[in-house]
Specification:
alpha+beta, seven-stranded antiparallel β-sheet
């Protein structure tokens, strides 16, 4: 399992509003361009023109949890589940925890750095908006 977390100097509700808007992921996740989304699915193009389709598994505002599963495109996964949790901290700050389970294991080497970049991009985006 891959895991990345970061503290963001913005309230959890504000960070959640960004994370839960699946169609706007390219605003903060560096390797994703041209996304589109509805309540069940998100389609993206990755840098380099690689297509990616994800099923939205959970978009729960009471838990502030977003989960997605890669369902198609140019990423050769057997199974994958990504989870983004936004937790409230003191003083109007948030903790964002991103975890991903993926098979085959060899994909972890490519996905791990991308997820780390996405978490950093989320922090920069949210704090810049504040």
């Amino acid at each position: 399992m891959l895991r990345s977390d970061i503290t963001i100097d913005r309230p959890a509700e504000e960070v959640w509003a960004v994370v839960s808007d699946a169609g706007r992921i390219s605003e903060w996740f560096p390797s994703i361009v041209t996304p589109s989304a509805n309540s069940d699915e998100r389609s993206c193009e990755l840098e380099g023109g690689v297509p990616l389709t994800e099923g939205v598994v959970t978009n729960d505002s009471s838990l502030r949890r977003f989960q997605y599963r890669i369902t198609g495109g140019g990423v050769p996964v057997e199974s994958q589940l990504g989870t983004v949790d936004v937790l409230a901290l003191d003083s109007g700050r948030s903790l964002v925890v991103c975890s991903t389970e993926v098979t085959p294991d060899e994909l972890a080497g490519a996905l791990g750095p991308a997820i780390d970049d996405g978490v950093k991009g989320l922090k920069e985006h949210c704090e810049r908006r504040g």
